[in-house]
Amino acid sequence: MDLLDEPVPGVGTYEDFNTIDWVREKSKDRDRHREIATKSKESTLALMKSISDAFSGWLLMLLVGLMAGALAGGIDISARWMTDLKEGVCLNGLWFNHEHCCWNSNKTTFQERDKCPNWKSWAELIVGTNDGPFAYIMNYLMYVCWALLFSFLAVSLVRAFAPYACGSGIPEIKTILSGFIIRGYLGKWTLMIKTITLVLAVSSGLSLGKEGPLVHVACCCGNILCHLFTKYRRNEAKRREVLSAAAAVGVSVAFGAPIGGVLFSLEEVSYYFPLKTLWRSFFAALVAAFTLRSINPFGNSRLVLFYVEFHSPWHLLELIPFILLGIFGGIWGTTRLGHYPVLEVLVVTAVTALLAFPNSYTRMSTSELISELFNDCGLLDSSQLCNYANVSVTKISSDALPDRPAGPDVYTAMWQLSLALVFKMLITVVTFGMKVPSGLFIPSMAVGAIAGRLLGVGMEQLAYYHHDWVIFRGWCSPGADCITPGLYAMVGAAACLGGVTRMTVSLVVIMFELTGGLEYIVPLMAATMTSKWVADALGREGIYEAHIRLNGYPFLESKEEFSHKTLAMDVMRPRRSDPPLSVITQDGMSVEEVESLIAETSYSGFPVVVSHESQRLVGFVQRRDLVISIENARKRQEGVVSASRIFFTEYTPPQPPNSPPPLKLRGIMDLSPFTVTDHTAMDIVVDIFRKLGLRQCLVTHNGRLLGIITKKDILKHMAQMANRDPDSILFN
Fold first, then answer.
1. What is the per-residue burial (b if ≥16 Cβ within 10 Å, else e) of 211-249?
2. What pLDDT, on the 0 to 100 scale, is given for residue 674?
3. Domain CBS, which positions (predicted)?
């Protein structure tokens, strides 16, 4: 029996924690496509099949967009309700959060819009009053208890059912998109537990965001829905195209920024991003944003909580403070992150809740804090940050108020924000490594937004009291609206996020989609670029690259230059002191010999040569394919025993009369493995691996096989050249 005639189930698939062969997957897809195109000319039914095959990609994108949008809407609504549950409960209906509870009330005054008879704090329910020290302690205690309960549930669920649901998931998704296989990372259990625990973790008040984990959730949706379509289920490279689009969907629903999502996928996470994937990502991000808009989770007809609109123009001289914010963001982006075990979740939650409650800016959810900081003070704002001294204003435009002196509440708010800044900076570093779903986007933006608002208010007061200074003269006359503190907060948020993730183009687009402020692209670009330069000068890698390296994932970073003068012979195995390379001959080995070779070694594949003496290369065969084919032949082919010969040749030579039937395995052999000569420069080899997504490359000298270079060998060599431990490139 020739295995070419009948495909064996399992051949051409990969084991867990292995890298896919992009070249083989792409060629499999081309063959499939060619076959469908040829058949479509034969009958109407085949033509219909061809059309449905072409349409399946778009249908899959539609489903991913709908599913991710619906899940994101559910997460947003649940997280807001549970965050408010820490402070009180609605008597009209338990399912209303604070804001929705007070919407229907007729007794709400404008000044005290948060207070309405339907909403009761825990102190009012338990003690009967909301005033006095005892009521404060009661509210404090309930806040801490709820926070501990939520975080305990989150960490317990992650630990018991889906260990892969912790963290943001973006470093792992980058690694998976580069061709690595982590089974179960994008499975249904991970999706279910991540969705539930993300709500719990955000509601517990820990300094983490839901934006990064939403990318993981969207990729889980993409992976699960791929199983509905054969062409995506059976081809790992095609599936990664869907996952690239799903990453764009994740950012689209996280920030309400569909175009920013597509650019994020292109700039930050994708390894292979053809034009077709760009269009499909665009479509999927659009569907997801539309779905989320239909759900309207925040009740403000916006996709995010902190949508703002500024109207006053900025001045060229303001670029100096914007660049200062960029420098701050770059320095903050290089802080080292810790890794903490499961038990510390409760300790960190307790510390967070105890320190956060007394300060109103740390008590509110991080998204609400950013919303408050981005806010441009209007006449109707009753926020502490907008409590300016009233100056008689002759002309008030509907858009902008003139700069005014700060009132006592603004100074109080400045102190509270300064403390909140220190608190957020310290607690975020501790929180990010913990075993709960945790994103870094929102905490980083909060740190930047606080710093920006402090600087903005400082600049505003400086301009008010010293408008005759040289720097303000000419563009900042008395009674004019010169400085917008909310804009500084927005620029600071972008700078800090850029410093941490090293995003540039996608970040600027996300920020102006968030804020609707097209005229502020230049300040955002200046701050983002500065923060990237500063962060790169202090430490080469962003947070995701650092995580990939800490976890030892086999990821070849395309942004990293290989500048060393080494040759392929310096990196290939076997080295001079090693035993010779394990090979299979094309016609001389029995089933028993091949099985013992497989049992004695742990290699992922074996080169096939003409003979041990000549070492002329014929092809390459994967270990998994060999094992499956031999097992299958023993079950289904009569007479195959340990003494049967294995042939990788095109024609089988005549066998002696009493010998057992041979086993022909030419069908599973790669007849065109990538080869380089022993004198090929390593920078070229690294480029070949990056651009073609190779698993391994064979090294020859005058046509004779000398050795093999795998992706892991390259990563170990690069680590060695950078004076790092080469054994850290071993995914555990």
1. bbbbbbbbbbbbbbbbeebebbebbbbbbbbbbbbbbbb
2. 93
3. 572-636, 669-726
Residue 592 φ/ψ, nearest 5 degrees = -65, -45
Which value, in Å, is the radius of gyration of the alpha carbons in the chain?
30
SS3 of residue 275 by DSSP: helix
DSSP state string for 112-166:
TTT--TTEEEHHHHHTS-S-SHHHHHHHHHHHHHHHHHHHHHHHHHHHHH-GGGS
- Rounded to 5°, the CA angle 311-419-374 comes to 15
pLDDT, tens digit (0-9, with 9 covering 90-100), for 101-112: 887 777 666 556
Residue 519 CA, chain-centre distance (Å), reads 29
**350 vs 205: CA distance, rounded Å:** 10
Q: Would you say how long the chain is, in residues?
A: 732
Q: Are 208 and 431 in contact (CB under 8 A)?
A: yes
C-alpha distances (whole Å) from 217 to each of 345, 415, 501, 619, 656 are 22, 38, 19, 40, 60
660, burial (CB in 10 Å: exposed 0-12, middle 13-18, buried 19+): middle
- Say which amino acid occupies 716: K
At how many degrees (to 10) do helices 521-538 and 319-332 cross?
40
CA angle 100, 102, 108 (to 5 degrees): 155
- Cis previous bond, 574, omega within 30: yes
Contacts of 341 (CB under 8 A, 6+ apart): 435
Tokens of 573: 């195995």
Read off the pTM.
0.91
Contact 555, 345 (CB under 8 A): no
Find the mean pLDDT for residues 685-711: 92
Give the residue-averaged pLDDT of 433-460.
91
Contact 514, 306 (CB under 8 A): yes
Taking CA atoms, 662 is separated from 595, 656, 714, in Å, by: 15, 11, 38
First and final C-alpha spacing in the chain:
40
Query: Which of 364, 288, 447, 351 minimizes the C-alpha distance to 80?
Result: 364
Q: Which residue has the tokens 């790992």?
A: 236
Contacts 24+ apart (CB under 8 A), 383-387: 384/360, 384/409, 384/410, 384/412, 384/413, 385/410, 385/413, 385/453, 385/457, 385/485, 386/410, 387/413
Which residue has better confidence, 146 or 402? 146
Q: pLDDT class for 96, splitting at 50, 70, 90?
A: confident
- C-alpha–C-alpha distance, residues 359 and 361, integer Å: 5
| Res. 322: pLDDT tops 60 | yes
The first and second tokens of residue 259, run together, are: 């175009």
Cβ(400)–Cβ(541) below 8 Å: no
pLDDT per residue as tens digits for the range 260-285: 999 999 998 988 888 999 999 999 99
What is d(CA 260, CA 514) in angstroms, rounded to the nearest whole number? 10
Q: What is the pLDDT of residues 339-388, one digit of tens each?
A: 555 677 899 999 999 999 999 999 988 988 998 898 888 766 777 888 88
Q: Can you tell me the distance from the alpha carbon of 613 to that of 278, in angstroms, rounded to the nearest whole number?
A: 50
Q: Which residues contact 403 (CB under 8 A, 6 or more apart)?
A: 460, 463, 464, 476, 480, 481, 482, 483
Tell me the pLDDT band of 236, cut-offs 50, 70 and 90.
Answer: very high
Q: Taking a C-beta distance cutoff of 8 angstroms, is the pair 85, 203 a contact?
A: yes
Averaged confidence pLDDT in the chain: 87
Handedness of CA 307, 311, 316, 318 (dihedral sign): negative
Q: In this predicted structure, what is the pLDDT of residue 3?
A: 43
* Mean pLDDT of the 70-87 span: 93
Residue 590 burial by Cβ neighbours in a 10 Å radius (0-12, 13-18, 19+): middle
Distances (CA, A) of 395 to 315, 377, 389, 402: 22, 17, 17, 9
